[in-house]
Amino acid sequence: MIARLRRAYRGMRLGTRLALGLGVLALVVFAVVGTALTTYMRDYLSAQLNDQLKLAQLAQSKSIADHGTLQGKKYYRWYYAVYDVSDGTPELRKPEDPADVPRDVDDFTALARAQAATHEELVRTEHLKGAGAYRLRACEVEPGVVLVSAAPMDDIEDTVGQLITIQAVTFGLALLALVVLGRRMLRRGLKPLSDMAYTANGIASHDLTESAARLPLRADGRDGGPEVDELRTAFNTMLEHIDDSLAVRAEAEQRLRRFVADASHELRTPLMSVRGYADLFQYAAANAPEERDRHLARLRAEAARMGVLLDDLLLLARLDAAEVETPLRLQDADLMELVHQAADAFRAGRPDHPLTGPAGPRAVWLRMDPLRIRQVVDNLLTNAAVHTPPGTTVSVEVRVGPGTAEVRVTDTGPGIPPDDRARVFDRFYRVDKARSRDRGGSGLGLAVARSLVRAHGGRIELDSEPGATVFTVRLPLNARGPAAARGPETAAV
Q: The pTM is what?
């Protein structure tokens, strides 16, 4: 039975449970108040009855002293007994009216004996046979004479009983009103929580497996007070974060699909070339030995190209998992020396793109991986040469500012279209879709450059317009070398 009640209670709504809890609390309060009020009323009426007995005995003592018995006005249903206690044994005097004493006077006699022994006024409550509850009071009228009076307590019991009845009815109606109205008010006050629960159920039924899944539901309203408003704000903020996470996940899934598709396409081309040249080599090597070297050279070139692509993919994967295994080998190195080396290599490999900039090197020491930073500069210079026509001027310069060192690679080519600027750092993305892979690369150079710069705690930015495209690499200037640059300076190569 108790287990069933517990299950039924747990199955109730929060408003009903709170209303019942308030009802139980109110019942306890009503019980305490009613008990205290009833006890006070009983004690008050009893004290009044004791005072009435005392005043009546004071008036009756004169009559007893004058006539030996009680004469004159008497109270209805009261009893009076006069005892002689001169020898220590109470002897009842003959009353004026036999109705003045009850049929059983044992309680009166016992009280008179106790008064004679203590010589103090005594008050007791006794249940007289055939008469009910009475309040007895014994006092000394004169030496050797004791008066015992008894007043009925029916009026006190009736008054207390009526008070208890009134309290029970009043408290019961108040408790019923409290439960009914309180439940309604609580349900109204908890309605914002019910709305949030409805919203949460709607979110739970929403399909979050869609690639572009969004959560159109929000907790609205301004009712419920500051606490509920804070909960509503936190709930909506959580939904916004979930929306952002879903958007990031959807974007990551799309990028992953594009990456897999592009990687498969990029790897398929050199593999098909290797297969084709291998077949040609198989059939042509025996009859035309002079073709063997040419086919082998092509096989090596395609294998080397595929190896570079795989190296870039492996590097990007390791950079993405930098929390587990960082691919950087940090050391103190001179950024200016790296840029000089990259510039010399560019001049040797790209004679059709003049590299401009006055001499004036200055050591700029950074905590970095020199091989990777050199790779970043090489990628930016190669990108400038590949995507601009022959004769386009390319420049590179190093700037030292407050807390950062900058490497700027600028070309005077046609610029990058605005629609493509936000995606030039994506993997396998090419601005010119028609450019051949032999000339345009695999589309990983800028992606690798950005990942490497981020791994060093820096950032790379693009600013392009017709006639000027600038890639700016900013690295934290945490130099510890002997000739670290101080203050904002510029050095071009």
A: 0.48
